[in-house]
């Protein structure tokens, strides 16, 4: 008569123990923000692949494992599934002068914008179709003394166009300092790229420039949509 | 009384049982360590296993690992060349992934097995010569293993004696050494091997000799030197960089180039080695000599410095190049042949005998100024027309003809047909499929023949036909109809051959600006002469690199060349690889062939990320090691 009691007690114990293990709260906080040019307060345009990354380390663990977030084209980022906790957050390998790590408390909706100094600002950028060509003109303002490595005009059917994501490009090597007053001009010939630029379709064009610094990424003006 | 007797009997019984050491029994199906090593034959057996584990990048090396010919060897026919600009796969377009080319657990297993032997050598009752040979061989194997590790991971834990578990896991954890210390260890082990190994083995066994160890040192030192010289082309940051676990100082380049020059020079000046058939009478003869060298490297004992053999067809003792890479027409019943497609990018690199010293991109039009136009067929262009579809490759370097099966050339007694479609008499193009058409009384088929078994190009059926315009030839055996099953190919692999040493030598001289430039130029031009060239070219880095690309194509060198010279991210930045597409032009009678330079169909652009210059270190949670940057 006694054994059924034992068995049910055992079952209850196992059940209780089994429940316990997985009782951690789900990630219930959100972290988001924008990379802003410290001087102009405009978002800093990025590459969607091989763009700037944000490394963050959650406090309270010995392993100090770095996690990463990617930044969107328009310079914003968002993580809707992050644990509420203390973090050390550092934007790294970007298109701006490296910044210091920050200690941040994430809880609920947390907005964290990064004020950065982009290596290069592309000013007065204009991209227009002219005859059988797409012509871009712009000025370059560099914020550091390093050389500007190259400038380019990139085309792709998607708005996240950039140097690593393009089907057609036109680049010029600079490898020197740039004159802020000079108007740079790049052009893409449409007929000689007929495989990738089809008349009647719409494509996105974007100008960019890269500074000669370790692990630097491209700086961009906004992408422009042009119907060919 | 009776009870006492029982107790006594029980005691006797228990004693008897306890004497029978059940738990101390030795397994009957395994050889014991002391027996194995007390017998020279046992040592040989053990050594054979170590050689089997060597990370030789041969026919069974794929991104999944080494010796990929046991168990289920079906990897779809994906070869390392397809991660480079040498080739693409017929069916798949994948590029490099994080888990590709890992070699951590297997590496440390080989190192442990070698350390066991090294610990036991002094206790063996063998002659002094044999001891010396064992010391040399085990150092060679360890150098080979650590070279494979350091080129993948940068600095790694240097474990030089057998580790014993004595209750403390922490005591077994060895931190990573710096990348510099690891390279220096590899070269030091090579030196030990060089000092202890003999010139040759009495029975001609395929085991390490002094010269094989020199060859390894030549290759490893050149790799380290290039990393030091060009590391800043792809700067990376992170803890592993701060602790110098990855990366070399620029100043280290000089000593490594010096080591590469000296090791190569030792082989060159030994007088024991030479190129196979170094002065052919014609390009045709050069092509045939070069082809035969890879069909069976054993015919060239002076060129093949170290050979890995494949003895019998069957699991683990054969490989699968024969089935995967045959053109479709000679598939001999295998359902998925023709999977290695050499790219136009590689074909363009080969020189023309009419203009030595330059890559000779294939010109498809009379104007010839449109080699960078990959937009497909353009009716306004004046295409060059050929009766013979291989005619466009006339005068191209003999090694191209021996490396790739060109359209319209013969292979295994068949004319290999590679055709992507036709230009109709009215001038419109029908490419990559569609119905046959009638021209006069003749029926013209898009792929060049009526039946799927009669052509080898562009039809996507079965994922079988080349999509670059040529098929693969190097290493395939023309005389053998390979059986349509796993591991039926038993051709051997030359891991080190003299031509590579000459190229290492030339590169180290030109890159370091030291050594004797005239000897470097001679090394370069000797290889070219063997390929049917008659005019010498100067020693420049561009000439050496082009020569490496064509001479060592498909020998799994290109991947590491792009890594060590930090050129991968520049070459593979949204890279689209290209095809040379043969098309039948029906606008003229009789019909002739024209060629279109264009992007390879159905293939995504490929981008190489900086972090891929190092592989990730597996298991850092357990082994406590510092991870490589960005993983």
UniProtKB/TrEMBL annotation, chain A:
UniProt-listed PROSITE patterns: PROKAR_LIPOPROTEIN (PS51257)
Q: Which residues form the DUF3823 domain?
A: 30-117, 121-224
Write down what this protein is called. Answer: DUF3823 domain-containing protein
UniProtKB/TrEMBL annotation, chain B:
State the superkingdom: Bacteria
Please provide the record's keywords in A-Z order: Cell outer membrane, Membrane, Signal
Residues covered by the RagB/SusD domain: 302-574
One Pfam family cited in the UniProt record for this chain = SusD_RagB
InterPro entries (alphabetical) = SusD-like_N, SusD_RagB_dom, TPR-like_helical_dom_sf
SusD-like N-terminal domain residues are 102-221
Primary subcellular site in the record, as a coarse category? membrane
Which protein family is it in? Answer: Belongs to the SusD family.
- Under which name does UniProt file this protein? RagB/SusD family nutrient uptake outer membrane protein
């Amino acid at each position: 008569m006694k054994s059924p009691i034992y068995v049910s007690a055992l079952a209850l114990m196992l059940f209780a123990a089994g429940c316990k293990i997985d009782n951690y709260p789900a990630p219930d906080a959100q972290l988001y923000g924008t990379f802003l040019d410290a001087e102009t307060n405009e978002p800093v345009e990025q590459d969607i692949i091989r763009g700037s990354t944000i490394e963050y380390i959650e406090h309270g663990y010995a392993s100090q494992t770095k996690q990463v977030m990617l930044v969107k084209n328009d310079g914003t980022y968002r993580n809707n599934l992050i644990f509420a906790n203390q973090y050390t957050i550092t934007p790294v390998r970007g298109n701006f002068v490296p910044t210091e790590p920050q200690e941040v408390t994430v809880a609920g909706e947390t907005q964290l914008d990064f004020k950065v100094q982009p290596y290069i600002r592309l000013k007065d950028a204009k991209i227009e179709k002219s005859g059988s060509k797409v012509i871009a003109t712009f000025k370059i303002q560099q914020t550091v003394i390093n050389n500007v490595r190259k400038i380019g005009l990139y085309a792709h059917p998607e708005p996240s166009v950039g140097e690593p994501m393009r089907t057609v490009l036109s680049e010029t090597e600079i490898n020197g300092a740039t004159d802020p007053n000079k108007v740079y001009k790049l052009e893409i010939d449409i007929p000689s790229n007929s495989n990738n630029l089809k008349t009647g379709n719409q494509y996105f064009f974007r100008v960019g420039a890269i500074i000669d610094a370790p692990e630097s990424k491209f700086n961009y003006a906004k992408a422009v949509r042009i119907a060919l | 009384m009776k009870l006492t007797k029982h107790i006594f009997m029980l005691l006797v019984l228990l004693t008897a049982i306890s004497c029978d050491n059940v738990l101390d029994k030795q397994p009957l199906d395994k050889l014991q360590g002391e027996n194995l090593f007390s017998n020279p034959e046992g040592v040989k057996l053990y050594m054979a296993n170590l050689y089997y584990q060597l990370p030789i990048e041969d026919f069974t090396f794929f991104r999944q690992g080494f010796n990929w010919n046991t168990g289920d060897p079906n990897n779809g026919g994906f070869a390392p060349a397809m991660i480079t600009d040498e080739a693409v796969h017929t069916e798949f377009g994948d590029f490099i992934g994080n888990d590709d080319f890992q070699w951590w657990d297997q590496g440390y297993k080989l190192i442990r097995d070698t350390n066991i032997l090294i610990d036991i050598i002094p206790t063996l009752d063998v002659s002094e010569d044999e001891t010396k040979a064992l010391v040399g061989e085990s150092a060679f194997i360890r150098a080979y293993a650590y070279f494979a590790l350091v080129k993948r991971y940068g600095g790694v834990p240097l474990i030089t004696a057998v580790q014993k578990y004595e209750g403390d896991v922490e005591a077994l954890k060895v931190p990573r050494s710096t990348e510099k210390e690891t390279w220096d260890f590899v070269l030091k082990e090579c030196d030990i091997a060089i000092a202890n190994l003999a010139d040759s083995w009495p029975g001609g066994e395929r085991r390490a000799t002094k010269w094989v160890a020199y060859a390894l040192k030549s290759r490893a030192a050149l790799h380290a030197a290039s990393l030091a010289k060009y590391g800043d082309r792809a700067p990376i940051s992170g803890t592993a960089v701060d602790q110098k676990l990855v990366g070399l100082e620029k100043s280290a380049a000089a000593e490594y180039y010096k080591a590469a020059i000296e090791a190569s020079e030792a082989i060159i000046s030994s007088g024991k080695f030479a190129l196979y058939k170094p002065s052919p009478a014609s390009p045709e003869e050069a092509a045939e000599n070069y082809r035969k060298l890879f069909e069976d490297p054993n015919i060239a004992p002076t060129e093949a410095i170290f050979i890995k053999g494949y003895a019998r067809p069957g699991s683990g003792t054969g490989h699968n190049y024969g089935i995967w890479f045959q053109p479709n027409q000679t598939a001999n019943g295998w359902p998925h042949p023709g999977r290695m497609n050499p790219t136009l990018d590689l074909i363009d690199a080969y020189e023309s005998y009419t203009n030595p010293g330059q890559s000779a991109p294939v010109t498809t039009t009379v104007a010839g100024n449109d080699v960078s136009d990959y937009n497909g067929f353009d009716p306004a262009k004046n295409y060059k027309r050929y009766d013979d579809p291989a005619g466009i490759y006339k005068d191209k370097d003999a090694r191209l003809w021996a490396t790739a099966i060109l359209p319209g050339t013969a292979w295994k007694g068949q004319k290999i047909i590679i055709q992507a479609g036709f230009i109709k008499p009215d001038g419109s193009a029908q490419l990559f499929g569609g119905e046959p058409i009638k021209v006069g009384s003749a029926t013209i088929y898009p792929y060049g023949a009526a039946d799927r078994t009669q052509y080898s190009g562009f039809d996507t059926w079965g994922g079988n036909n080349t999509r670059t315009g040529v098929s693969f030839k190097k290493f395939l055996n023309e005389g053998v109809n390979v059986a349509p099953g796993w591991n039926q190919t038993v051709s051997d692999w030359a891991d080190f051959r003299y031509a590579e040493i000459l190229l290492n030598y030339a590169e180290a001289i030109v890159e370091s600006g030291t050594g004797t430039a005239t000897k470097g130029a001679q090394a370069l031009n000797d290889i070219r002469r063997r390929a049917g060239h008659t005019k010498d070219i100067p020693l420049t880095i561009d000439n050496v690199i082009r020569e490496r690309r064509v001479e060592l194509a498909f020998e799994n060198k290109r991947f590491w060349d792009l890594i060590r010279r930090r050129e991968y991210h520049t070459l593979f930045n949204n890279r689209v690889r290209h095809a040379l597409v043969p098309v039948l032009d029906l606008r003229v009678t009789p019909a002739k062939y024209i060629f279109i330079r264009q992007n390879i169909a159905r293939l995504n652009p490929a981008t190489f990320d900086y972090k891929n210059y190092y592989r990730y270190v597996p298991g850092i949670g357990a082994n406590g090691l510092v991870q490589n940057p960005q993983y």
